[in-house]
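Hey, sorry to bother you again with one of my protein questions. I've been puzzling over a protein and I'd love to understand its fold better. Take your time with it, there's no hurry, and the full record follows here:
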Amino acid sequence: MEQSTISEGVFRPRPGAVAPGLHLVSTPIGAARDITLRALDVLAGADVLAAEDTRTLRHLMEIHGIALNGRPLVAVHDHNEAGVAGRIVAALREGKSVAYASEAGTPLISDPGFVLARAAVAAGQPVLAAPGASALLAALAVAGLPADRFLFAGFPPSARGERQRFLQELASTGATLVLYESPRRLRGCLAEMAVSFGAMRQVAVCRELTKRHEEVLRGTITEVIEMIGEEDPKGEIVLVVDRAPPKIVGEAEILAALQQALLTMRVKDAASFVADTLQVPRREVYQLALAQRQEE
């Protein structure tokens, strides 16, 4: 691909040959300047443009001085993705480059694009990413909670019973949770989290990330509910929840696990397996395993 140029602080995309294949292009979640130079090059040079919202993409391209120049601009959203995927794959088979952009953020992350990408993969066509902005990663960066291991759980179900079951399944997850939520359902979701996760679990409510009214509320679930108050917040919401606290495991549970492990493992291996599985000190488990063997 021919490279873009920067002259006197102004980016100038230079249309050029973009490699054949489906290019998944991340677009800003707020500030238009958060788009990457590579993403602009792909948008400037792709043979076909596809977007969740064609008006949003055209506006973004206008901001950055990228002309459509008569290229096809195809709408690909939740309601037509399965039908349009065949047309996109046909273009890929002709050796064309197709750039697909979500309305905001990274395609496939609670956005359309999966059906399209899967169809391209099934057809043996290249699928490439022009990475960039993502509300998920932006929220992890500013939440102040552990980010070494996390689980993105998408949107909680809107129906109350399904949402309660959904949260209960996540309650013991040993990784930081990231969810998207509607502003009008946020307070109810947090109240149900207080029951499923415990009111003292640490959370961060990230609102309008990268936008003018960006706000991050941090604290326990109870504290954050109080910060929000009686009125629903406005804007896009990302909810980050601390991992579950370590489970307290008693000696009886350790011994039961050891008895099963010792049926097929040596003492040292059984102790290591049980310690890792139950997340308890290995030395303690090894001593119990030795005592268990001596009693047999």
Observations:
- The longest strand covers residues 176-181.
- DSSP finds eleven helices and twelve strands in the chain.
- The chain has three domains: 5-133, 136-241, 251-295.
